[in-house]
Give the backbone structure.
Amino acid sequence: MVKILELHRTSVKLFVLWSLICLVAFPIVEARVRHYRWDVKYEYKSPDCFQKLVMTINGGTPGPKILAQQGDTIVVELKNSLLTENIAIHWHGIRQIGTPWSDGTEGVTQCPILPGDTFTYKFVVDRAGTFMYHGHYGMQREAGLYGSIIVSLPSGASEPFAYDYDRTIILNDWFHKSTYEEATGLSSIPFVWVGEPQSLLINGRGRYNCSLLANPSLGACNVTNPECLPHVATVIPGKTYRLRIGSLTALSALSFQIEGHNFTVVEADGHYVEPFVTKNLFLYSGETYSILVKANQDPSRNYWMTTSVVGREPKTPTGLAILNYYPTHFRKSPSTVPTTGPAWNDTAPRLAQSLAIKALQGSIHTPPPTSDKTIVLLNTQNKIEGHVRWSLNNVSFSIPHTPYLIALKEKLNLSHVFEQKPPSENYDFNNYDI
């Protein structure tokens, strides 16, 4: 009997010891629920010194940065305080596994949020990386409804590269006409093109030349307005910075560069890539990158960060921000002429970047060797009943009265709601007249 009791005590001790070892060696990582409460409204702002109505979240544009860890649940309680306009928010790069109704594509996954109503988005960020969100009703992204989502690795996990500090930059092009004016022109007969943007914004700030206005004395443009002071990123000499850069332009493809600094690209669209060094980063709308920048230049001065249009003959001035070397004063403008980056029609560096982007070894998700179905999509500009419309395989999207996902969920009779003829999954390669 004594031996049995001793054996039992020994077993209990071993169990307790093993439990302690497991707690130390395999820490329990508990996902968190992160709550955000947003109020969306129009306010008069001057992002590039020209005052206009801007769509804001909690009074600002870009909107609040969402910070989370991989596996966390994001809950955004969004109130539509616009007086006459609906809202939907798309979470760009978030896969919405199990929560497609939170994807924010109005007319497809949800009904829009009506003026005065509140809607709660809830979803899990299932992978780490750099992502963005933006308005997905009409042209609201262009009106200022956008922001960043930063998802870090779980506690205890480490990135495959080292850095000291983290910064976020969103690039955008900016038009002085309201989105209503532009949408009316795009849908009119005859077609009225929006033209080129007046400014390029870096983190919601740019600088328009007020003297170009027909009546600059009317006060709508004020270069002394603090809202349009250049964005400043302060760095400590000798430290390495991870700049998470995204583009949410309406029209422009962009280049981004930092005067006197090369940098290393380590992430693209939420995926690690084989590091490569460059002096220009090219971004198309919706793309995100992480670059590593070493603050290894003369610390007695500041440096320009610039963005400029590529792929189109630029009629928009270069966007400017300041890389501030501490302890130099952050408002001290660099004495040098801002670089404009590569020529707008120089395709060689853009092609080189595309060829350099390869998945990081060890993080490759091998695709299946063969496909079950091949779908070929051709994007064209068509004329439909006199209107210029953009199409995929000659099918142009029209917002339905009932979102497709809701129709499926509620088991509605889809034959009364949607066209039953499936769209083409291919096109005539040989004979199609583009």
